[in-house]
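Re: [help] complex structure
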Amino acid sequence: MVLNTLRNLRAGRQARTSLAHLPADRPRPADGELLLETVGLTKSYAGADGELPVLSGIDLRVRAGEVVALLGKSGSGKSTLLRCLAGLLPVSSGTVAYRGTPLTGANPGTAMVFQTFALLPWLTVQQNVELGLEAKGVPAAERADAAVQAIDLIGLDGFESAYPKELSGGMRQRVGFARALVVEPDVLMMDEPFSALDVLTAENLRGELMELWESGRFPTRAIVLVTHNIEEAVLMADRIVVLGARPYGTIREVFEVGLDRPRDRDSAAFDELIDRVYRTMTGRQKEGRVPGRHEPVELEKRTPGNTPLPSASVDGLSGLAEMVLHRGGRCDLADLADDLGLAVDDLLPQVDALDLLGFTSLSGDDLLLTPVGTEFASADVQGSKKIFAAAVRRAPLVGLITNSLRSNAEGTLRAGFFRDLLAHHFTAEQVTRQLDTATDWGRYAELYSYDAEPEEYHLDENGDIGEPDDPDDPDEIRPPTAASAPR
Ligand code: ADP
Ligand code: MG
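Output below.
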């Protein structure tokens, strides 16, 4: 069926370039025409401590004929930016314009495909696809006709009367695509559209989508793709906009891809670009930033506020360290990920953790164990616990918890205390994730223990014997003053 669709396309079957329901008053934008533009876009959400900035100073343009990927780690503000572009969220300051007109509500030139498909379970495939047109007041007969075309285009013919629950994940997402494409938006917006699918299904759907796009029969003029997957971005995009999350979402760098389509994953140029993007995403390179806005955060003093703990368990980061040791203490991350059947970004939290602890460094594209990292990876459990206990104080949140417990007479503090402190810098979800990591790390290092029932941290044996605070050490984390501690 899918093959049929593609065969039909290749055979040059007459596809309608425009549907009757579309207003004929404005010609389809020509290649290069500016479709979306943000100027100085900032966005904050209301947090426990007032406004929580998520995006800052975003200047972005999307032109007809291009695929733009918004790439960043989880929490870097990709979905927020996409929703602002679609006019589904108001910006806090700056502007978003569609074909030169600033948005005042939903963007009339965009349609969205969601990670979770967002289908209505009580409607058939056909009815789900017609939804977008119904909202635009298109008469029933035209709706039906247009939906059939979109369903056919995306390889769903035969499934018109099926309900979502009868479909596999891949087929459900095809419905998501058909529902967006049926309105023939100038810009198709996709928020991690393949990440809820298994690897093969995702790969297949990606390939078909790009084939449609390259065939020139795609009923949209541009694509904005949100992804955290570097390879997906390099495979699909003409331009990759990397968002950085520290201290909040800014454009860290923009890559013009410039590789021929269809893309050859085995080419040296493909690999080389993945490596460059990877280095930018992990923030390890100081050069090559977009001029002006981006300060090298690496040089800042590390605090719990500017150095969020990566979501990596001790087991996970130890596992990675051991694998690097097994490969002689040095390995190419992309190769390692490949061997494990993972995408390179699946390893990023563990790499970030090892880096933060001083166990690894990055040299070119290789991850290298440092001397202490080598010791950590080769020691027995008790030995690696000791090394970890010394290293983990470099993690600002772990240091904060340890020092706070030490400066408290009972050596006990409620988790809510740290939650409140972190709420000044992070959302509730990020705070929870970071406290989970800090609990895991601190427990393993026997710095402190944690009781889930009263949600309390208690000082443990290793926590008590730390070195006295060095007032000149810029990395040292000060315990909060007694006055700010909870009763
Ligand atoms: P990404 O898509 O890159 O993972 P998001 O745009 O979803 O990032 O989120 C960016 C940050 O904004 C995250 O820290 C997230 O917790 C926060 N955030 C997202 N939506 C909301 C909301 N409705 N209210 C408060 N905070 C939010
Ligand atoms: Mg998201």
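The pocket of magnesium ion (ligand 2) is lined by residues 78-79 (CB under 6 Å).
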